[in-house]
Protein: AI-2E family transporter
Organism: Lederbergia citrisecunda
Amino acid sequence: MNQHHLRVIYRLIIVLLIFITLYCFLLLKPIWKPIFTTAMIGLLPFLLSGLIAYLLHPLVGKLESLGMKRYVAILLIYLLFFGSTGYAIYLGVPMVIKQMKEFSEQLPIFTGHYREWIHQVEASTSSFPEGIQMQIDERINDVEEWFNKLIEKTSKAIMDLFDFLFILLVVPFLSFYMLKDLDVIKRACWYMTPKKWRRNGVLFLDAVNESLGGYIRGQILVCAIIGVAAAITFGIIGIRYPILLGIIIAITNVIPYFGPLIGAFPVVAIALMSSVKLAIIAGVIVFVLQFIEGNILSPYIVGKSLHMHPLFIIAALIIGGEAFGIIGMIVSVPILAIIKIAIIHSRDHLIRTRQS
């Protein structure tokens, strides 16, 4: 057996071991998930503050390079960012809360209508052969069970969001100090890192920043544009809860491939309560917005892709969704990009080590 065949077998074994590890990881989900959830609740303000500081840092650096003192640049960008965000929240939160309240009050009516529709479908297929009828009944029961779980999870997620509001109040203060003391934080990390890892660590972080920096900032801007456009359009055509649905469209738009379908489902479901025509129009609007996002906004705002094969992205989305739900699907692609950069960086480091 030649060297080429050995390398192929070696790579297949590595891939198999990775999948076995991931499978075991998912099997142990009941053990590690409560611990991970508790840790994430405590770390959430720091992670959000770090993300905001990371997003605003290039603007601060740009103003500083133009001759403005750093603390003045930070204060200006900070006030503009949180001022505009606070004003948007001031205007939007009362409407969102109102629509959430209306939605929760209408939830039993929605579920009643869809259960009635499911039973009508079940009754209309009662004359089918017994084997086919059994399969149809099982699929209908599965759909009904899935829909009930979806409604339950949605309601719980809305309630959990309000539980986090008090925790999130500290985010503006943390992000301000992170921006202000960013150089101090960098020096602390530099001195805490072993000397032999420092140079490679800097190269790795530079590669991650180059790959993910523009992608994350661009995605946030694109999702905000799509969410606002969706909310305005839904309001114009008369769909209920347009702001709430716009937020859902904006959040799910981050998820590649599956995001548009996940975001379209509640829009079409709510529009269907008014009329089939409105549901079709809503579906067409979501499709047009996704076409604009994919062919106009993302190429110009997000720029270059992360250069990952769709199969790896889909696998990451499935694993992330299975482990952490929607949040897992949102963060799975950036995490996959970091893993890819780490593997390439490690490979290049090993090659340089062997050559030297």
Observations:
- Residues 318 and 329 are 7 Å apart (CA to CA).
- The chain has a mean pLDDT of 76.
- DSSP finds twelve helices and no strands in the chain.
